[in-house]
Amino acid sequence: MAEAGAKRFYTLVESVAVDGGYRVELDGRAVRTPAGNPLVLPTAALADGIRDEWDAQEAKIDPASMPLMQLACTAADRVAPNRSAILDQTANYGATDLLCYFSDGPKELVQRQREGWQPFLDWAEQELSAPLVAAMGVLHVPQPETSLSRLRDALAALDDWNLTAAAHLTQVLGSLVLALAVCRGRLAPVEAFRLSVIDDHFQAERWGEDREAVQRLRALEREVEGATVFLERLRS
What is 126-174 written as a DSSP string? Predict the structure, then answer.
């Protein structure tokens, strides 16, 4: 992938079918990942999306405007060759999942958290056989090892492409449970993001918006939007 600020060096962008999937070509040359790996994509829809990202570049290339390309490269360069490590790193979020730490006040915030989070703690217990312990406050709460193992099993059931999306969403949302709910079609990504920032929105309502906080949330929202499109195109 071209570095930020590199000049656009191609004219024609195409997505083409190849053995094993689809690829994007720039003036007839296949796009490769930063590590030099061939980028063979699993669906035509994802290839078309990445094609459109390359085609939308103007005089200079802006990788930040290419979330599909970035996630696809992550899948090829980082997730596929290091799958077990990625599974472990992502599964570790279950031990400190956002949904397990309710605020100790005020009551209005706690009520919002319970209404938003408890259904997905229940879902993890019922659908994934992974009951988690929830508590009030920020002190660490140990989780059952069997539950953590089952959360890892749920991740392991995903292919490399969906695991890439799950790992990315887990980091952005701070919740493995929410990320798995998204990847299993139980929850829309935009709703998962809303649930992950209940506290931020509550504080903004009470004390007013902080410019840096707004910028941070918007950056996180863009990450979720990119992962949303990535998942949609994987499923097309």
Answer: HHSS-----EESSS-----HHHHHHHHHHHHTS-HHHHHHHHHHHHHHT
